[in-house]
Amino acid sequence: MNDKNTNSAYMLHKKSLGFTLIELMIVVAIIGILVGVALPAYQDYAKRGNRSEGRAYLMNAAALLERYYSDNNVYATATNTMPTSVATAAGQTSETGKYTGSMTVATPFQTYTVTATQNFNDTDCGNLTLTQAGVKGRTGTAMSVTDCWGK
């Protein structure tokens, strides 16, 4: 009788080792669903963070242009060219290189549009723009200007 109890305990212990294929497939399916939900949310979060860098870059460039205007009574001395003092201070790219800056000036150099061209595949908002009048814009069509500039 003692031998039978020992044999049953051995069989019970042997059966409980490892996982079945179905259990592993369920775990893989759950992980797949979590990744399918979490990855797009993370990518959206990263793009929103990058957009804040573009907004900061444009606001800094606009502040420098206004400072230049107060000294020279014009925003630039040539069409489509940032003043040297502004371009040097603002840099041609944003802090981490997610955006490249450019500017267009309308003759007689009293209006400008500063553009931050994105370098990270943001198709929702595209490139961000800012004018001397404070009008904010974007080239993408999937999101509104408010969403692109406000989030």
Structure explained in plain terms:
The chain is α+β, with helices and mostly antiparallel strands. It has one domain (2-150). 52% of the residues lie in helices and 15% in strands. It is built from four helices and four strands; from the N terminus they run αααββββα. The protein has a four-stranded antiparallel sheet. A hairpin with a 4-residue loop joins β1 and β2. α2 runs antiparallel to α3. The radius of gyration is 29 Å and the shape is rod-shaped. It starts with a helix and ends with a helix. The mean pLDDT is 85.
Write the layout of secondary structure elements.
Blueprint lengths: L1 H14 L5 H52 L11 H7 L8 E8 L4 E8 L9 E4 L4 E3 L6 H6 L1
Antiparallel strand pairs: 1-2, 2-3, 3-4
Helix pairs in contact: 2-3
- Provide a count of the helices: 4
Instruction: Give the overall shape, derived from the CA principal axes.
Output: rod-shaped
Overall mean pLDDT: 85
Q: Please tally the β strands and state the result.
A: 4
Please state the structural category: alpha+beta
The quaternary structure here is single chain
Order of helices and strands: HHHEEEEH
What gyration radius follows from the Cα positions, in whole Å?
29 Å
Count of discrete structural domains? 1
Portion in strands:
15-25%
Give the proportion of residues in helices.
40-55%
**How many strands, what sense, and barrel or not for the largest sheet?**
4 strands, antiparallel
Distance between the termini: 74 Å
Uncertain runs: none
Q: How would you write the strand order of the largest sheet?
A: 1-2-3-4
